[in-house]
Amino acid sequence: MVNVRLKYIHRNRDRHGNVRVYFRRAGRLVRIREPVGSPEFLATYNKLMSATDGAKPSLGQKIGTLNWLVAEYTKSSRFHGLDPRTQRVQLLRLESACAEPTMPGSDLLFGDVQCVHLTPKAIRVLRDRKKHAPEGANNRVKALRRLFAWAIEEEVR
């Protein structure tokens, strides 16, 4: 039997020894529950690949959205002036916030929301989604604060 490695597929073993399979690309992390190699698995994989085709599918979709603002920020000199590790961590935090659904079970993600509609209440929701990890919640708010401070200072429209 030939063992084929698919791009963007990651396997993790949980504490009980179960292997879990994830598709990770451009900030999206989706668990694939179908058995590896089955036709259902390949159909799910192909669907995820087509949904994320492009350079940075989770970023830069519509002008004025949070995804777009994050993409613009990552092109800025302020972002490139950060240490490479800090850049990576900040980008992961921002992409994590963009990947959060606006409401439980909703298909609309915070990244797809226009920035003018991101109220303090919306930021509190993003913070509170990390209440199980208080430092993570604080770091998410700091990353968003840094993003919006840059946007205001640069007068990003």
Please give a quick description of this structure:
With 157 residues, the chain is mainly alpha-helical. It is built from six helices and three strands; from the N terminus they run E-E-E-H-H-H-H-H-H.
Question: How would you portray this structure in words?
Answer:
By secondary structure, the chain is mainly alpha-helical. It folds into two domains: 9-51; 66-153, no CATH class. Helix content is 45%, strand content 11%. It contains six helices and three strands. It has a three-stranded antiparallel beta sheet, with helices on one face. The longest helix is centred in the last third of the chain and has 20 residues, at 134-153. It is elongated. The chain starts with 8 loop residues before the first strand and ends with a helix.
